[in-house]
Structures are given as structure tokens and as C-alpha cells.
Amino acid sequence: MHILKAQQFDKDTLQSIFNKARLLEDPVLGPTLGRRIMASVFYEPSTRTRFSFEAAMLQLGGSVISTENAEQFSSAAKGEILEDTIRVISEYSDLIVLRHHAEGAAIRAAKVSSVPIINAGDGAGQHPTQAIIDLYTINKEFHSPDKLTFAFMGDVAHSRTIHSLVYLLSKYDVEHIYFVSPEFISPKPELIRYLQVKHISCSPCRHIEDIIDHVDVWYQTRLQKERLGDGGSFDMDVAFQAVAHEYRIDNNIAEQMKTDAIIMHPLPRRGELALDVDTNPRARYFEQAANGVAVRQALILKALEL
Ligand code: NCD
């Protein structure tokens, strides 16, 4: 089974993945995948996603073949198209984890692959496995996202982790979603339309202070400079400063949040999330990253239909 976008999962499937991940948090309980090979093919930089996928496969007893800079170190450097690369690698492996800079790349890959494709981020499109990890992290804290109020902050327009998590949340009975960002990186109209169709209440917010006392889950993201082209009509540095300063979470802001609120971030962070938040009891971003291994083990097993 391919894992391409958040919308493909229903609540029961998500729950079964979470149950399995819970079990797999104890490393001795994993099945052994013997001679199975996972290929991790990354055309964009990654720390958490690639390492946690590879750690997950190794924990399951399988093997990994990998390129962490496919643009330079695969035949893409010689002009090979993605489809040809995937067609060939799918003959060498049982599963392909793909990260690519083009939106829709995972869907293109799935059309030609003879093995399951897992989308590990396609441009400004989606990052479904990160969203499932995020929801797992939220559930550990609150049992479910039902009745919770969310604030998605930073680069709402380009953050694929936000897109996928919002699509997942729209399956639940969430109280409200705020999109806290400057106008130029506010959510894409298609995301808002999707939420309207699903009757999920959402609104933009330009000042953290306005909502500080009633948000349960704060989800901060960095400005995705690499997706803004050359800046076009606005100055990139001004934009970066806006996110880093006006929409920044530091410990002073964090202290004003609800005492049981949590602060998440898919990482990497830039100035938008201050280092002094790390010791705040609301910080959950390192737990979020740590949850990646068990959840990705469950997702590898799902993709392999095991
Ligand atoms: C993100 C990504 O690559 O989309 N990180 C991640 O996978 N955990 C976030 C980002 O790059 O800003």
C-alpha cells in the first residue's frame, strides 16, 4: 500500500497504526523483516525523517539502501527523470521512502513503482507520516484531538507538515483551528475550502496575544525560504524577520499559554522558536521527533501490509 497523503487514512486505520506504534515503542516487540530492503531516496535535505525511517527499518530487522542527496548522487545528476529512477530502484527494494522538491512527486512515483511508495515530503505538498507522528504525539497528551483548539503558526502556506496534519484533524471533532501567520504565507484557499466542506471551524489570526489563553496545541513552523523562489514582490529578509520576531514563541510567550497547552514544531527551527522554550514544561517538539521511530515502524509494516 502506498502512503501518499493524509486524506487516504480513515480514523480506524489511524487508530490501528497508533496501537501498533505503542507496542513498537518497546523495541523487543517488533517483527523481524529478514531480507526486506527499504530504499530511502531523498532529493531534499533531511535529518529526522531520513534517520528515523532508517532507524525504524533497522529496528524491524530489515535493511536500508539510501541516498541522502539524490539530486547530486543519483542519476538525476545526469538528467534522469524521477520515473525512471523509481522504476529501477523498485526492482532493488521492497519499499521506497521518497522525499522530493516537487509537489505531486510521490504520486508520480507510485504510478511507476512495483513496490509501495511512502511520501516523505513532496515540495510544499504533504508529509503524511510526519502528520501521523504529530497526531500520535497529541493523542499521548490529550487522548484525542476532539474538542481541542489548535494554532498553526509560521509558514502556513508552504509547510507540508501543517497541510497533512490539518487534513488529518479534519476527520475529528476539533474545536477550532487558528492560522497564525503574516498575510503573505496564510493558508492556501484549497485548504480552507476543504475545512469548510468538513465543517471545521477555522480563522486567521495576526497576533498571538489575541488567542494566547485558549489554545491547547501550538504548532510552530519555520519560514520555508526555499519555497519562496527569489522573493518576487517582497523582501525575503523582511519576511523572515516578521516570522522570526512577530510570530516568535519564546519562554515569555510560552509562560502565558494555558498550563496544559503543548508546543510542537516539526523542526528544524530558526528564530521562530527560542531555545529558552526547551525547558518550558509545555515543549513537546523533541518528544515529537522521538516518536518518529515507533510510528514509522508501524507505517513501514502498514505499507508492506504486514
Ligand atoms: C519538515 C519538512 O521537511 O517538511 N521537517 C520534518 O520533516 N520533520 C519541516 C521543515 O522543513 O520545515
- Number of H/I helices: 12
Estimated radius of gyration: 19 Å
Structural class of the helix and strand makeup? alpha/beta
Order of helices and strands: HEHEHHEHEHEHEHEEHHEHH
**Nearest-integer average pLDDT:** 93
Question: What compounds are bound to the protein?
Answer: N-carbamoyl-L-aspartate
Q: Unreliable segments (pLDDT under 50, ≥5 consecutive)? A: none
How helix-rich are the residues, as a percent range? 25-40%
How much of the sequence lies in strands comes to 5-15%
Shape: globular
Write down the oligomeric state: single chain
End-to-end separation in angstroms reads 10 Å
How many runs of DSSP E, i.e. beta strands? 9
Strand order of the largest sheet: 7-6-5-8-9
Can you summarize the main beta sheet?
5 strands, parallel
Supply the key terms.
globular; single chain; five-stranded parallel β-sheet; 306 residues; four-stranded parallel β-sheet; alpha/beta; binds N-carbamoyl-L-aspartate; 9 strands
What does this structure look like?
- The protein is α/β, with parallel strands linked by helices.
- It has helices spanning 11-24, 48-59, 70-73, 82-92, 105-112, 128-142, 160-169, 189-197, 236-246, 251-256, 285-290, 292-303; strands at residues 37-42, 63-67, 95-100, 117-122, 149-153, 176-180, 202-205, 217-219, 262-264.
- The protein has a 5-stranded parallel β-sheet, with helices on one face. The protein has a 4-stranded parallel β-sheet with strand order 2-1-3-4, with helices on both faces.
- The termini are close together.
- The structure holds N-carbamoyl-L-aspartate.
- N-carbamoyl-L-aspartate binds next to helix 2 and helix 7.
